[in-house]
Amino acid sequence: MTFDRSLKIAPSILSADFADFGREIRAIEDQGADWVHVDVMDGHFVPNLTFGPPAVKAFRRHVTTVMDVHLMIAPVDPYIEAYAQAGADILTAHVEAGPHPHRTLQAIRASGMKAGLALNPGTPASAAEPLLDLCDLVCVMTVNPGFGGQSFIHSCVDKVRALRAMIGDRPVHIEIDGGVDPTTAPLVREAGADVLVAGSAVFKGGSVETPEAYGTNMRAIREAVTA
Ligand code: DX5
Ligand code: ZN
């Protein structure tokens, strides 16, 4: 993985057909996805449950781009090695997940992955500042984590701008997660984001039988950003 700030679309497979992940992953990649975003939820840090390491390892066989794993779990540290073994390229943990995010980021890098730090909508940009040298990515949540299909929280756009200034020349991606669609994508891109996670806005209207809709949906986001 080389670093750049070009626009990247990372469809969240939380909006895929849960009985057909292999074909869904191949469909979004064929249709132009840059990364594949995997939402791990524990029913404790967030009120929903999704995938453990064996499921993520099975997804890996189908991912040819970048597997971007977003942990919405607490605690994080006991599971880092399992997600490394599952093949995550990037492992993102929430700053709110425990008292030692600095140790968590170090452990993620020590396990051979890129380290991401996610911020809930209620967490200020300043929470990331002391940790930026340990981060390869900062994920700004623009919904409260736990579910796909929620509305974008506009007050988070200023936080993206603040983080972009804080990051300066450091090779740290800014990822946006939640409510990204052709109307909200330009706002966060302009504020400095380079990775846009999108679940419902990518998968809507398509299926593994009609994957062209995924391509159309991703193009609509790219075109809105470059317009
Ligand atoms: C929310 C997840 C997101 C979610 C995005 O907890 O982290 O990745 O799937 O879904 P949309 O794009 O539908 O808001
Ligand atoms: Zn996510």
Average pLDDT, all residues: 98
In what range is the share of β-strand residues?
15-25%
Spatial strand order of the main sheet: 1-8-7-6-5-4-3-2
Quantity of strands, as a count: 8
Radius of gyration: 16 Å
Characterize the biggest β-sheet. Answer: 8 strands, parallel
Helical element count?
A: 8
Bound heterogens, unique = D-xylitol-5-phosphate, zinc ion
Q: Shape from CA axes?
A: globular
Distance between the termini: 28 Å
CATH superfamily: Aldolase class I
What does this structure look like?
The radius of gyration is 16 Å and the shape is globular. Strands 1-8-7-6-5-4-3-2 form an 8-stranded parallel β-sheet. 43% of the residues are buried. Strand 3, helix 3 and strand 4 form a beta-alpha-beta unit. The chain is of the alpha/beta class and 227 residues long. It has a single domain, classed as TIM Barrel (Alpha-Beta Barrel). The protein has 8 helices and 8 strands, in the order E-H-E-H-E-H-E-H-E-E-H-E-H-E-H-H. Bound molecules: D-xylitol-5-phosphate and zinc ion. The site of D-xylitol-5-phosphate has 22 residues, from strand 2, strand 8 and helix 7.
Summarize, please:
By secondary structure, the protein is α/β, with parallel strands linked by helices. The protein has eight helices and eight strands, in the order βαβαβαβαββαβαβαα.
Protein topology:
Blueprint lengths: L7 E4 L9 H10 L5 E6 L11 H8 L6 E6 L7 H6 L4 E5 L6 H10 L3 E6 L17 E5 L15 H11 L5 E5 L7 H7 L3 E4 L1 H4 L8 H15 L1
Parallel strand pairs: 1-8, 2-3, 3-4, 4-5, 5-6, 6-7, 7-8
The chain binds D-xylitol-5-phosphate and zinc ion.
